[in-house]
Amino acid sequence: xxxxxxxxxxxxRLEKKLFSDLGFxxxxxxxxxxxxxxLVFGEDLLIIQKEFDGFSETNExxxxxxLDKNGxxxxxxxxxxxxxxxxxxxxxxxxxxxxxxxxxxxVEIFQSYLDKCCGGGDAQKLLCDxxxxxxxxxxxxxxxxxxxxxxxxxxxxxxxxxxxxxxxxNGLRLQCFKATPYSLGNELFLQIEQIIPTPEAAEFMIGxxxxxxxxxxxxxxxxxxxxxxxxxWTQALEKLKTKTDLYKNVSPxxxxxxxxxxxxxxxxxxxxxxxxxxxVEMQIFWGSQAENKYIFDHLLSQKELIQSTFGDNLSWExxxxxxxxxxxxxxxxxxxxxxxxxxxxxxxxxxxxxLESAFKKPLSDAxxxxxxAGVGTTALEVNGEQTSQDQIAV
Length: 394
Known about the structure:
alpha+beta, Trna Endonuclease, Chain: A, domain 1, Yope Regulator, Chain: A, 9 helices, 24% strand, disordered C terminus
């Protein structure tokens, strides 16, 4: 790995190090870094516990327990300079222990983590936000034996990699990430790269597993909700299309959300229909995390004007540890009661028109400002972290 120095137009070699030589430990350093920056794994993961020991009749502890966007538990095992021979066996044991966890237990585990490590918070609300559902009843969590495994180490022994590849061929979701520290003078750098499976193969496998998870969820729990939503959106779109052009080319959906283009790619207007809450929102996931946060911050700088045009205060959710950001306005309802649907539909019509009016020009200006500033193009991202042009590690 080298550092680019644009001042001298030269590159400088970074010195590869061992964690042990730098005085770093597995528990107090590597584990903490991963817990606070799970985006290093290349996807949105929610860490719900660390040093988890909630297993019956055993004193074993798994390093990190996470949740992915499909509601699957992710067991993360960390080693420092050497994976050791038994890391796969450890992870498999922990996954088997976690396979019995129910939804209410997962909420309880996450709440314990928030109280102990994060200064508190509402576990149910944060899980809903992460899974992008209005109610946890909308999702199946920890379905069947679909738990995922992530192994992290500086070096992986051959007996480990051969076992991992065999397990992958038999349908287990397992990834190996190589963590390598580097130094340049007094500065330290960390590179985390997925080595098994390759990113291209992983993308294909994730697509297959997501499809299977969606099908199982539909078959087991969501048929009734899908039918209700389809009926609701059919009625809602009949009225929406007479009041605004936003949804003129949109068809009814079985999902709890309905999106319409804002004129800026990756920044749709969403209608959210839940059993307990309805919401209009602007979602910002145009490109990289840096680009999304730039657009959000540009809009936030015009908060007073936007809210004045909208006619009420909005919920501004930057979500620093997520790729997307949201600007939302909601209302509590009884969505399953069909007698409430006419009132809900009128509320959607009124507030989506207000939302578009409030954001149409500011969003266009934010997008133009981002492109002019060169965010995402004049700066490079290395291992998920944005670095200035003067000193870029590659």
